């Protein structure tokens, strides 16, 4: 699938905002720590991906009831659902000068209970296209990996069940995603109000 930039300006995929607060000291400190382990942009991006995937548990797996939505809060609490983890990874990538944005899938439970799942798209120097990665966090049955050539996402879309890969690379999380995160009292409340489509 060819990914489509929502904005024609690559600089928009390096910007900071209220959610992608990559100028926050927590994000800057984490990015600097990760950069010490990396020799180039590719190694940094892979290290940042693995950090968010493995060191920030998905709250559905950990049972953490808190809802974080700013990158700095996700990194400070080490907690978040896929949307929040995508925000944290995007902030870490942008903090190191790697253009990054948001992509989404619409997934179901065997054709029922649709939900929008959050991913990250990144574009490294020397690569002429965007690549999607999934920092959701691995568990039995989920084995997401960092790969620029062959996608290794948590889930592959099953079109026969009405699942969808959305091709847009968003500069910021869509309003539906941010509203769900910002208005949730806790994870149980968030779970009841997750977006079902974009």
Notes on the protein architecture:
The relative contact order is 0.19. α1 (25-35) packs across α4 and α1 crosses α5. The longest helix is centred in the N-terminal third of the chain and has 15 residues, at 41-55. The protein starts with a strand and ends in a 6-residue tail after the last helix. Strands 1-5-2-3-4 form a five-stranded mixed beta sheet, with helices on one face. The chain is 33% helix and 17% strand. It has helices at residues 25-35, 41-55, 59-62, 71-77, 82-95, 175-183, 187-192; strands at residues 4-5, 100-109, 112-122, 131-133, 164-170. The mean pLDDT is 95. By secondary structure, it is an alpha+beta fold. The protein is globular.
Secondary structure layout:
Layout: E1 4-5, H1 25-35, H2 41-55, H3 59-62, H4 71-77, H5 82-95, E2 100-109, E3 112-122, E4 131-133, E5 164-170, H6 175-183, H7 187-192
Parallel strand pairs: 1-5
Antiparallel strand pairs: 2-3, 2-5, 3-4
Helix pairs in contact: 1-4, 1-5, 2-5, 4-5
Give a brief outline of the structure:
The protein is an alpha+beta fold. It has helices spanning 25-35, 41-55, 59-62, 71-77, 82-95, 175-183, 187-192, and strands at 4-5, 100-109, 112-122, 131-133, 164-170. The protein starts with a strand and ends in a 6-residue tail after the last helix.
């Amino acid at each position: 699938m060819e990914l489509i930039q929502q904005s024609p300006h690559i600089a928009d995929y390096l910007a900071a905002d209220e959610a992608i607060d990559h100028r926050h000291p927590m994000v800057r400190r984490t990015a600097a720590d990760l950069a010490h382990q990396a020799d180039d942009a590719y190694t940094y991006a892979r290290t940042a991906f693995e950090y968010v995937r493995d060191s920030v548990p998905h709250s559905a797996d950990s049972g953490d009831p808190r809802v974080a939505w700013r990158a700095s809060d996700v990194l400070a609490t080490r907690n978040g659902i896929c949307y929040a983890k995508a925000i944290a990874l995007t902030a870490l990538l942008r903090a190191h000068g790697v253009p990054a944005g948001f992509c989404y899938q619409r997934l179901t439970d065997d054709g029922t209970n649709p939900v929008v799942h959050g991913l990250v798209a990144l574009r490294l120097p020397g690569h002429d296209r965007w690549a999607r990665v999934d920092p959701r966090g691995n568990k039995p049955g989920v084995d997401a990996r960092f790969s620029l050539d062959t996608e290794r996402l948590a889930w592959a879309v099953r079109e026969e069940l009405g699942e969808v890969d959305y091709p847009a690379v968003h500069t910021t999380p869509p309003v539906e995603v941010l509203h769900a995160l910002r208005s949730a009292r806790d994870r149980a409340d968030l779970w009841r109000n997750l977006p079902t489509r974009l």
